[in-house]
Structure formats: C-alpha cells, structure tokens
Write a structure and sequence with these properties.
85% of the residues lie in helices and 0% in strands. By secondary structure, it is an all-alpha fold.
C-alpha cells in the first residue's frame, strides 16, 4: 500500500468519524433536554444539570487536548481537524454550566453571584476557567489565526491552564470524595507530561549544538 493511499484512507475515515463525534458530543445536551421534558432529571434536577454540564465540559476539554498526542503517537494527522470542534463543544457545556448557575440557581441575582465569586474559591477558579475557555472559543477561527499570528498559538496553550483550573474547580467543589477529580487530574498530568517531554526533546539538539 502506497503512502498516498494510506493518506487518502485516513482522510476518508475522518469524514466518517467527524459527524459521529459531533453527534456523540451533542448527545449529553440532548439527553438533558429530553429529561427536562419528561421530568426525568433525578430527584434534584438542578444539581444533576450542574454536574452533567460541568463533567462534559471537562471531559471534552481533556479529549480535545488528547488529539495532538494521538496524532503524534499514531501518525494520523487528519485527526487534528477534530480538535477545534471538541474544544468548542467543551465551551458549549461550560456555558450551559455557567447559565445553570446564573439562571436556575441564582435567578440573575448579580449581587449574590459576585459574593459567591469572591467568597467561594471553587466558584472563583471556575469563573477564571470559563473566561479562558471564552477567549479560546472567540479566537477559534481562521480570522483570529491570521490576525494574531504566532500569538494565537501561545494563547491556545492556555487550554492546559483551563484543564487544570477545571480539575481544581471540581476538586474543591466535591471536597471529600475526590476520587473522580483525582482521575481527571491524572489524565491532565499525563497530557502535560507528554507535552513537556516533547518540548524537552525539541530543545535537546539545540542545546547540543550550542555547546
């Protein structure tokens, strides 16, 4: 099998996988809407909606950060085209998570929300994380890439900061049973470790040459 054939097959596979990933990422939101209309969102629907939207925001952010390592480890370059979509879905669920807090839990009470941001650390870090995701979502387009140039790449490296912030937000929220946030912490640490390792390997030849 020639290299061109492999490339074409991988590109074709992506055309099949992309809509499936889109549908899968949208499914949790669809289930929430369905549960709302069927009155089947557990005994505490507000907590359930908050938990589900927050969990999927974190999950899709981590999956989006996994795209580059998968590409580098497998050589399947077309998979990189899924990264922006996954990142935008992460922001989508983060926005739903925020709106649940603003609309359903606080009823647009600005004073109460401001107090929460400053008095409750998990909300403080959660708000900071959302602002990072907002900046990434707003600049996730070709116009911003052209406009920002090299600064765009540095800006979007903040996705790792957002992942760390999301894990801390989750950890401080649950307080006692940190089993689930600990698992997310391990995954984010692994992704950061791979990034650090590859960055170190890139710099090694330069260091040897300079010496």
């Amino acid at each position: 099998m020639t290299t061109d054939t492999v490339v074409r097959r991988r590109a074709s596979a992506l055309q099949i996988i992309k809509p499936l990933v889109f549908a899968a990422a949208l499914t949790p939101a669809g289930l929430l809407v369905y549960g709302f209309y069927t009155n089947d969102l557990t005994a505490n629907p507000l907590d359930y909606i908050t938990d589900q939207t927050g969990t999927w925001a974190l999950a899709l952010l981590v999956i989006s950060l996994s795209v580059t390592p998968i590409r580098r480890l497998t050589g399947w370059n077309p998979i990189i085209k899924l990264r922006r979509m996954l990142g935008l879905f992460s922001f989508f669920y983060a926005l739903l998570h925020l709106l649940t807090w603003v609309v359903l839990l606080n009823f647009f009470d600005l004073n109460e929300m401001v107090k929460d941001v400053f008095k409750r650390p998990f909300i403080t870090i959660g708000m900071a994380t959302f602002l990072i995701l907002l900046a990434l979502a707003v600049t996730s387009n070709q116009f911003s890439i052209r406009r920002l140039g090299r600064r765009w790449q540095r800006l979007h490296q903040l996705a790792y900061a957002a992942a760390i912030g999301a894990v801390i937000h989750f950890w401080w929220l649950v307080k006692e049973d940190v089993t689930e946030p600990r698992r997310w912490m391990v995954l984010v640490t692994l992704l950061l470790g791979l990034r650090a390792w590859w960055a170190w390997k890139r710099r090694m030849p330069r260091a040897v040459t300079a010496s």
